[in-house]
Amino acid sequence: MNPIDSDLTLAQLVTEQPHLAPHLDALGLDFCCGGQRRIVDAIDALGLDLAETLAGLEAHTADDERSGTPDVDWNSLGMAELVDHIESSHHTYLSGALTALDPLAEKVAGVHGERHPELLEIAQTFVALRADLEPHLMKEERVLFPMIRELAAAADAPSFHCGTLRNPIAVMSSEHDQAGELLARLRSLSNGYTVPDDGCASYQALYAGLAALEADTHLHIHKENNLLFPQAIDAEQQLSSPA
């Protein structure tokens, strides 16, 4: 096992070692929207000890290597394959999770909100997150992703109604930032999804569901921001450049 190079970006680390994504989440290291920061800078910004943090991450890698858990090589996927993967896994999961967690958040806030008023804010924040993400998924599936598939199959630069893929990609990236802020607020309000002693089974299910949604969405955004979007922008630029 090679030691982690602290000059890599967080995005590069997760692309090379996807199994570390939940451990970075647990540390508060943002590898999706903040994925272009160097590991050393991100760790320093949180006031964590660099050597200790890297040793902990390397220990997780060693554990996974012993267990034989394989990592997925997302870099080996072409644009169209990556779009298919994102839709079939993250979009499908997210649509179902948003639908299922909405009534659960409302129910738990109604039952426990008097003793735990933060639940009312959690329910409101979740409504805002769903209102952001559902139209976002639709725009990707109906507008951006078909254009990326067209680009992947093209021999010459396609003519898009938006002019260039950079425009819708900029919009999607901005919306990713908004979703990231709402997810961070949910984690803060819930004290890291820590269920209080008087929390019922529904309370536990809500926090477990929100934690899983956060983890999946972080990986989802990472694959788009740090893999798919740069690949699409580069491909469009190459096809548009004179031979």
Summarize the helices and strands and which ones pair or pack.
Blueprint: H1 10-16, H2 21-27, H3 39-45, H4 50-67, H5 79-112, H6 118-153, H7 166-189, H8 201-240
Note the main attributes of this structure.
globular; 2 domains; 71% helix; 243 residues; mainly alpha
Describe the structure.
There is one protein chain. The chain is an all-alpha fold. It folds into two domains: 10-67, no CATH class; 76-240, no CATH class. The protein has eight helices and no strands. The protein has helices at residues 10-16, 21-27, 39-45, 50-67, 79-112, 118-153, 166-189, 201-240. The longest helix has 40 residues, at 201-240. 29% of the residues are buried.
Summarize this structure briefly.
This protein has 243 residues and is an all-alpha fold. It is built from 8 helices and no strands.
Characterize the quaternary organization of these chains: single chain
Number of helices: 8
**Helix/strand/pairing class, anyone?**
mainly alpha
Low-confidence stretches: none
- C-alpha geometry: globular
User: How many structural domains can be distinguished in the coordinates?
Assistant: 2
**Secondary-structure element sequence?**
HHHHHHHH
The share of residues in helices is over 70%
